[in-house]
Design a protein that fits this description.
CATH superfamily of the largest domain: Bira Bifunctional Protein, Domain 2
Radius of gyration: 29 Å
Largest sheet: 8 strands, mixed
Number of helices: 14
CATH architecture of the largest domain: 2-Layer Sandwich
Amino acid sequence: MTDGIQKDRLEKLLAMQQAGVDAYPPRVPRGIHIGPVLREFDASIGKTVTFCGRLGQVRDFGKLRFSHLSDRSGSIQVGFERDHLPDFWPDRKRVEANDLVAITGELGRTQKGEPTLWARDVVLASKALRAAPEKWHGLQDQEQRYRQRYVDLFASEDVRKTFLLRSQIVREVRAYFDSLGYCEVETPILQPIFGGAAARPFKTHHNALDMPLYLRIAPELYLKRLIVGGLERVYELGRVFRNEGISTRHNPEFTMIESYEAWADYRDIMDRVEGLFAHLCGAVLDNRTVVTFRDKQFDLKPPFQKASYLELFKQHNSGLDWFDHTAVVQRARQLRLPIDGIAPHKLANDVFEATVEDTLQGPIFVYDYPVAISPLAKRTTADPRVTERFEFFVCGMELGNAFSELNDPIDQEQRFQQQLLHVDEEQPSEMDVDYVTALEYGMPPAGGLGIGIDRLCMLLSGSNSIRDVVLFPLLRRVEQDATVQASSAPPTPKGPQPKTAGS
């Protein structure tokens, strides 16, 4: 708080405190939301209402002032007239742009017809000691907007709309699974053995138990224990953590929903995905099925396209056999992919990702993945090298992953042992024996699904980066002045109970 504007605001705050005015009162008049009133404005003209929100830039015309008041639902012009505000008017300049206020007044229109709240009482709710940035919307440094999301939200209506949409999407995803009889559950975030996906975990240590723990990379193995326990249909919507790179599609902590349904297979889960998108288009997009994402249009109306993983691999690699390791290595060299120390199955999948995924515009289900990269999925009856697994893509971006779940404890133990032959940072260094034990008690045939909520929100909101749909994305730390600037603010003077500013 060192520039002239901030100094001026501090001086105004000091003047209020010296006058016994509380610039941060414990309560102010309760208001109603602006948006619903604006939608039915003509029917509300002449009514007295109270709105609470943040003031915009003030335009002074002597005996008349105008500003805009904004809350999360909308913005309305406010007119301040000297003759109707005898108590507020002498101190009017102490209440300025970016301050939070409660304003009671009469609804009407200006001579030009603009909906306006004609103020009759103004109460300062919170004095802002920083001015809102004038050109925030045009900032080229997008990172600053992510770092100061609190400013981004009140300075940009579009940003607010995106995160309100995200909240609605999450609510409707839950509503869809609830309507199908799924039970929402919670499973451990701190896990002694990480599993359920191939990803590098975050590691921590529990002092009291003196044992290493991992932030979960997936809730899968715990949710399937619940299927063994007889809950039959379960889901969890929550955070997972993967110690990987950061990009427009990846944030180290992200939100996903995983669901498991007894007596189902991956074909049933395809139906569930199509049903979810039909539900979201109706509940969130007002029955629109076409969305614009990364300058392209996609129709989310089911049914969705389907294609075989191995056939796609051949088509985009001149007939190359996924299981021919020598040929795959040669292809990887052509693509300049890392080769040294990469397990054969991972290298083949790297080739798939490099040559196929960007072509998957979709919506499309890519199905029947090789066993080697699907350690938790059931084999197909047609080819024991392949599993009943699909991934769901739109615009080259994977949004979901699903299996017919492996419930054979002997097969599962063998696959875990095979994983241990190629231990790396993305594979657990020990077998989850308790999970195998759970399967030995008997798990019914089941279909499982995982959908990335952040990517789903990107698609439905038309956001190009995952950072645009995560309120506080992880960013490299910036060293800041440790001095608490607010300490330079004058202390609240002792004395009589302060009156409320502007009342």
